[in-house]
Amino acid sequence: MGAICLTRVDDRLIHGQVMTKWSKGGFNSNAIFVIDDEIAKDPFMKDIYAMSTANSGMTIKVFSIDGAVEYWEKDNFGNDRAILLFKTIGAVKQAIEKGMPLDNLNVGGVAKKKDAKFVIDSVALLPADVEILKELNAKGVKIFFQTVPDTKLVSLENGLKSIS
């Protein structure tokens, strides 16, 4: 039976840290799902992501938010034990609102933008991101900030203290 092993926000999506650290980090995952509406519409980008795991033994699939939710509702991802990768916190919120059952959320890579503040070295949050994270937390999603599994895990509460 399939499962969601890890849900991560990382605006770079698949990169070395995801492939070498998170996919091998004791999650017993066999698949990585990139969930992004724009990439799902772009056959060239879908091919690039599919090729990025050619030697890893991992399956990669690219979904729109709706497509990922439909695949979950169909049969809980079949035999895929997946790491879900989102580019934005807003996309995670949409997936949850559409029925994706996410209990935990790792926010590990969000680039600095104007008006954003760093929570950890690799995560800079806009005020709108903070509000979404608070809303998801109130709904029972455990949120944490962590770049890679062997770095310090920072809880939502402690992370938000660092920017207030």
Report on the architecture of this protein.
- It is a single chain.
- The protein contains seven helices and nine strands.
- The protein has one domain (3-161): 3-Layer(aba) Sandwich (Fructose Permease).
- The mean pLDDT is 90.
- It is globular and about 40 Å long.
- With 164 residues, it is an alpha/beta fold.
- The chain has helices spanning 16-22, 37-40, 43-51, 65-75, 89-97, 127-138, 156-161, and strands at 3-10, 31-35, 59-63, 81-86, 104-109, 117-120, 123-125, 142-145, 154-155.
- The strands form two sheets. The protein has a seven-stranded mixed β-sheet, with helices on both faces. Strands 6-7 form a two-stranded antiparallel sheet.
- It is found in: Cytoplasm.
- One of its GO terms (molecular function) is kinase activity.
- How many DSSP H or I helices? 7
Tally of separate domains: 1
Structural class: alpha/beta
CATH superfamily: Phosphotransferase system, sorbose subfamily IIB component
Using the alpha-carbon principal axes, give the shape.
globular
- CATH class call: Alpha Beta
Tell me the radius of gyration.
Answer: 15 Å
Q: How many angstroms does the end-to-end distance come to? A: 42 Å
* Spatial order of the strands forming the largest sheet: 3-2-4-1-5-8-9
* Helix and strand sequence: EHEHHEHEHEEEHEEH
Main location: cytoplasm
Domain PTS EIIB type-4: 1-164
Keywords: Cytoplasm, Kinase, Phosphotransferase system, Sugar transport, Transferase, Transport
Protein name: PTS system, mannose-specific IIB component
